[in-house]
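okkk here we go again. third time trying to get the S-adenosylmethionine bound version out, last two times i messed up the smiles copy paste (missing a bracket lol). double checked this time i swear
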Amino acid sequence: MTSTQREIEVSYDVSNEFFRLWLDENMHYTSASYLTGTETLEQAQLQKCKILYDYAEMNPEKLVLDIGCGWGANLQYLALDRGVKRSHGITLSTAQCEEIQARKLPGVTAMVCDYKDYAPAEKYDALISIEMIDHLCSPAQAREGKAVEIYRNYFNKCATWLKPGACFGFQAILRNVVPRSKKDLLDLQFTADVIFPGGLNPRLEELIMAAHPAFEVLEVRTQRESYGKTTAEWYRRLQLHEAEIRSKWGDQVYADYDRYLSTCVRAFDKHWSSDVQMKLRKV
Ligand SMILES: C[S@@+](CC[C@H](N)C(=O)[O-])C[C@H]1O[C@@H](n2cnc3c(N)ncnc32)[C@H](O)[C@@H]1O
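finally!!
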């Protein structure tokens, strides 16, 4: 079972204004790609989009689908920075879809739809998905040994939407080493239960196994340190807006996001979590 619509609303529908305060201005809610380490968050987010654009072998004439498109940051990059004429996005969050419509991006169509129910009218030239797959397998399903099967069903479905030989620029947050202390385990549990209910970060080896046989894995690029820098910057911006957040959304929201983001910074620093970008080609 994927995260339900209600669980997705817990994660993404606190308020668009709330997320805009501490994410970058385009509201990427996923790891940026720091290549020199001296970039701003905004520059590193554009670099992430460029890596995935290149992995997807995109050009402005190609029709592309962004699976789990968030508030439309990558769709905005495609339309405004790269002049892509037609791009589609799906998300499970109504608030995110409303934000995308409000941006009035040329050539962009977004809808609220579970990927499982998505039935596009035409085949795509390329796919991009940025950290959506962590919503597909619950911790209980992983304990039952179902993770690879669930991820493979996802990749198989994605392949049916693509033209033969077309590419998929894919990014996922990863579960890596298990922390040793009880406090660290409780903080990770809190993040999973309260901030992202219903989901679980996949392991890199599960994704590689699941991509086959629908996709050939052409490139794998991990970026644990980039996610550490991204979450540290989100946390810094959250703290800058502490008074406003407490007054508009309450002390509990501030406390929850303070705990979640400080846990993320430690998670990437201590290798509990990582992030991967993959170039996949439909076999
Ligand atoms: C962490 S957010 C990433 C958003 C965006 N890709 C970004 O880079 O900012 C995960 C996204 O996946 C979407 N999502 C989760 N499960 C989904 C499903 N079953 N079908 C479609 N979208 C889904 C959520 O609604 C959300 O937009």
